[in-house]
């Protein structure tokens, strides 16, 4: 089968997947605009200097505070406790350690005051993220996304090669096929 036919038939499924990824990406950005949020890493200030490491007694008190607060919430499954030394205040978090958006308890480490996180996006936002990244199919979806990305790169190269060959043969004078 000539390269042009392979190129055409491989481009159809890869193009459909690219269209799907582009559509879900646009919907994700529209949802972020609706919520007044910025894309991750956009518009964030330069990383702040870390606070000095607390003493052992302070660390023990911080962990005790978050442990007491976590025990008071029976619905919270605690697998990790994290101490964040960046920012204007030290925070202590406890949670399952799973995907972003999961249940998590966040406290001001010095006062023990609970920090309320911003409202999470609607459930469909996470569904769109899973569809956009291929996570809804697990490892199969990730591998499929990688293979389609490779296919699109190869299709780009073979498309330029086909266009160049047709132009060199004189069958193609302009930029586009008619």
TrEMBL record:
<dbReference type="Pfam" id="PF03929">
    <property type="entry name" value="PepSY_TM"/>
</dbReference>
<dbReference type="InterPro" id="IPR005625">
    <property type="entry name" value="PepSY-ass_TM"/>
</dbReference>
<feature type="transmembrane region" description="Helical">
    <location>
        <begin position="143"/>
        <end position="164"/>
    </location>
</feature>
<feature type="transmembrane region" description="Helical">
    <location>
        <begin position="9"/>
        <end position="30"/>
    </location>
</feature>
<keyword id="KW-0812">Transmembrane</keyword>
<protein>
    <submittedName>
        <fullName>Putative iron-regulated membrane protein</fullName>
    </submittedName>
</protein>
<keyword id="KW-0472">Membrane</keyword>
<keyword id="KW-1133">Transmembrane helix</keyword>
């Amino acid at each position: 089968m000539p390269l042009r036919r392979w190129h055409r038939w491989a481009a159809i499924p890869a193009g459909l997947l690219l269209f799907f990824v582009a559509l879900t990406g646009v919907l994700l950005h529209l949802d972020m605009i609706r919520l007044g949020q910025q894309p991750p890493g956009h518009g964030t200030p330069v990383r702040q200097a870390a606070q000095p490491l607390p003493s052992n007694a302070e660390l023990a008190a911080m962990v005790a505070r978050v442990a007491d607060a976590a025990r008071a919430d029976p619905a919270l499954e605690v697998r990790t406790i994290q101490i964040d030394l960046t920012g204007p205040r030290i925070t202590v978090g406890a949670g399952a350690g799973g995907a972003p958006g999961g249940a998590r308890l966040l406290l001001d480490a010095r006062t023990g005051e609970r920090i309320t996180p911003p409202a999470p996006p609607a459930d469909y936002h996470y569904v769109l993220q899973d569809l956009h990244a291929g996570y809804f199919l697990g490892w199969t979806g990730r591998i499929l996304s990688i293979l389609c990305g490779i296919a699109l790169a190869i299709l780009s190269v073979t498309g330029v090669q086909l266009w160049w060959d047709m132009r060199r043969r004189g069958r193609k004078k302009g930029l586009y096929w008619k």
